[in-house]
Design brief:
Blueprint (H helix, E strand, L loop, with lengths): L16 H4 L5 E2 L11 H13 L9 H15 L8 E4 L2 H12 L5 E4 L6 H8 L3 E4 L3 E3 L4 E3 L2 H8 L4 E7 L11 H13 L3 E5 L20 H5 L1 E5 L2 H4 L7 E4 L3 H13 L7 H10 L2 H28 L4 E2 L7 E5 L10 H9 L1 E2 L1 E2 L10 E5 L4 H16 L2
Parallel strand pairs: 1-13, 3-4, 3-7, 7-8, 8-9
Antiparallel strand pairs: 2-10, 5-6, 9-10, 11-12, 12-15, 14-15
Helix pairs in contact: 2-11, 3-11, 4-5, 4-10, 12-14, 13-14
The chain binds pyridoxal-5'-phosphate (PLP).
């Protein structure tokens, strides 16, 4: 490999959320990587920093071209320039869209278990969360959509929005064309707008391609707002740079007005550099190697668990660098297993409870790290499980 993804980098002294909160534990929780940010981004930022004036930034042709180029070459989808808007982050923009596209008291559907921030932004905007729990098959440790329940929730006249996590965090489901088409048809039938969070789309297993929700049909284009960013795939979450694309003119007008009112349309001067450096041929080459490293880590973790902790079940995943682990054979309902692992094994993972649905007895483990840290994490997990 051209890049060394196994180099251990000490993050102390960088105000890292992941490491500071861990207070000496091994952190395998929040979704950033203990792997160097793509070197092309580092170099672009070094050059920009060397200029010495960090004034207000505009998002010009290079920014638009970078997103358009990447979706066309990586995801075979043409984003039109006029659809795109800059924003400082997926979550601030989604929160803003919720305020603009629904009223207080309205329902917003999520498919649980799912990224916990969705619950927070729905509730803090005084909207109601409707959980369309994914169906869990314990035999295969896999998730699928409960269509009857989804239609019932969409048909509630108070339901205005559905948040789609495409691909899904934490289960790693990549939703296929048929599924996305069916969601689109149902949402259109009940006049529900889809907020499609596609931030994890670039981290997929070899040969597994994500499908942009809007690419599936003209109908899907018309009823959706899509949130994208290079920050997960290239490890640049701290730079705070993201984008939305909204094909429908009227939807775009409403959401754009909201972004502007909420003042989340101006980024720092490095946010432009990160995007134009990442979405390049060199970025693609780095990303392809990173994906190999992540799926190698996934294989190591899965093998280790199978051999040493057969009571745990790993949910097979084709995307994200997150591993969703069913611990129901060693955890009782309502117990916080992540807190137990912190105390007993000095290992910090995400508690499944926060993800809703059947997440209660699950943990989410971040696999985006050097192999040595991964192995240490697996050993700690084994210590915790052995004490049960
Ligand atoms: C599904 C999903 N959406 C959004 C985010 C956060 O995006 P941002 O930092 O751009 O707000 C995350 C971070 O882990 C995520 O997993």
């Amino acid at each position: 490999m051209k890049y060394d993804f196994n180099k251990v980098i000490d993050r102390t002294g960088t105000d890292s959320l992941k490491w500071e909160k861990a207070k000496g534990m091994l952190p395998m929780w929040v979704a950033d990587m203990d792997i160097e940010t793509f070197p092309g981004i580092q170099e672009a930022i070094r050059q920009r920093a060397a200029h010495g004036i960090y004034g207000y930034t505009i998002y010009g042709d290079a920014w638009f071209d970078a997103y358009i180029y990447w979706w066309k070459t990586r995801h075979s989808f043409e984003i039109k320039r006029e659809w795109l808007r800059f924003t400082t982050g997926v979550i601030p923009a989604m929160s803003s869209a919720i305020r603009r596209l629904s009223d207080e008291g309205d329902n917003v559907i999520v498919q649980s278990p799912v990224y916990p921030a969705f619950f927070r932004i729905i509730k803090s905007n005084q909207r109601k969360v409707l959980e369309n729990n994914l169906i869990y098959n314990r035999e295969t440790a896999s998730y699928s959509i409960n269509w009857t329940d989804l239609e019932e929730k969409l048909s509630d006249p108070n339901t205005k929005l559905m948040i789609l996590c495409n691909p899904q965090n934490p289960s790693g489901n990549i939703w296929d064309t048929d599924t996305l088409g069916r969601i689109g048809d149902l949402c259109a039938k009940y006049k529900v707008t889809v907020l499609s969070d596609e931030i994890h789309c670039d981290i997929t297993a070899r040969g597994k391609e994500y499908v942009p929700f809007a690419s599936v049909s003209e109908l899907n284009k018309k009823i959706s707002v899509t949130f994208i960013s290079p920050t997960k795939a290239f490890n640049a979450a701290g730079i705070q740079t993201a984008a939305l694309f909204i094909p429908d003119q009227e939807l775009r007008r409403i959401v754009t007005h909201g972004l502007s009112t909420d003042s989340i349309v101006e980024g720092n001067c490095f946010s432009m550099e990160a995007v134009t450096a990442a979405f390049t041929e060199e970025g693609a080459d780095w990303l392809d190697q990173l994906r190999m490293h992540i799926w190698n880590n996934r294989r190591i973790a899965e093998d280790y668990i199978r051999k040493n902790m057969p009571v745990l079940k790993v949910v097979p995943s084709d995307s994200t660098y997150l591993m969703w682990v069913d611990c129901s054979e060693v955890v009782s309902q309502g117990e916080d297993f992540s807190a137990y692992l912190e105390n007993e094994a000095r290992l910090m993972v995400n508690s499944g409870k926060a993800f809703g649905g059947n997440g209660d007895c699950f943990i989410r483990v971040n696999l985006a790290c050097p192999e040595s840290l991964l192995k240490e994490g697996m050993e700690r997990l084994k210590i915790g499980v052995a004490k049960r």
